[in-house]
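tool_log.txt
---
The assistant was asked to compare two proteins side by side. It first ran the structure predictor on the initial sequence, then on the second. Raw inputs and outputs are pasted verbatim so the downstream comparison step can read them without reformatting.
(1)
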Amino acid sequence: MDKHELEAAIEGILFTFGEAVEPSKIAKALDVDKKEIIDTIEDMKARWEEEGRGVVISEIDGAYQMCTSANIYEYLINIAKQPRKAQLTDVLLETLSIIAYKQPITKSEIEKIRGVSCDHAVSKLVEYSLVTELGRLDAPGRPMLFGTTEEFLRSFGVSSLDELPAPTPELLEEFKEEAENEIKLDVGGE
């Protein structure tokens, strides 16, 4: 095994294990002398630090581990702070559709249309910045009103709510049939 192959093998082992690995285990796995493993790792450590790489090799109680360089912690924190891409489930899409077409709308109005609680769905849509609180309805209990955001428009490639597709009578009939079939399944399954 030449030096390049040895370094590649050590790098792969340290990367894959993600925890400290004793040089004796690496030596046994690669059928190489333990001293040659230690010398190669020490050379790699020095070269990687000199090159300012994003990962370093650290020695921990006589074993070696690949770690993130302290120089890039700031970048890791910045990426960890970025919001995750929204995963819109069928429930979220259904709730979002109701809000988009009926806004401003309260949770109880959404629940009346959907027939189930919508707290989680609305919370997720607010978290994803697709829906926002628009204020409160002037009614007993002053329920919160919800509507879509500019992020919603950007995400769905429309410049205004007027560009949302209008449901056709055929599509409404199809939705009605689907809802009736779901009701039959629910009643039949009980």
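(2)
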Amino acid sequence: MRVIHYFSPMSGFAYLGFAELCAVAKRHGAELDHRPVDISRVFAAVDTIAPARQAPARLAWRRQDMMRWAQRRALPLNAIPKHWPVDATLASCAVLTAQSLCGDAEPFINALLSAVWARDEDIANEDTLATLAKACGLDAAKLLADARSDTVRAAYEANTQEAIAHGVIGSPTMRMGEENFFGQDRLDFVEAELARINLA
């Protein structure tokens, strides 16, 4: 079983759901395929206003909802992070590089998400990325060099185009077969589908 996880490393809801998504996959023996995407282009493809540009009332509700989920999941959260939104291109490409360097990029992904939403760090900054990479046992210099390569940039572009083609509307979106599950608050449906597949 495979769950494709389309996400942005600056996504607050991806942060809130990441540990639980990993736990759900582990409980059911499912493979997680993490695919960072250019979320601004995903939003544009489905006529969605990026959260930071939404009306004040909607943005206030979003922050309140995030605080509720952070409390439920026992996660630290700064609902108004200092470095959000930022250009997540290099961070996203660094995720792809981390996958090629060590196979398991989940610690690095978690570090990126936590950097934005728990520690007010700038994941568009190369020094920040290098520090996070080293903390995860990765070769920071190689990770950043490879992340700038045409090959990795092409893979990031392919992820984004694929997500748009599959009807992804935001981050995080989990895809199994031909079905999308959008939002970290839909992980119970993801788990139910994995349980159903296991019983089939």
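---
observation on (2): The first helix runs from residue 12 to 27. The mean pLDDT is 97.
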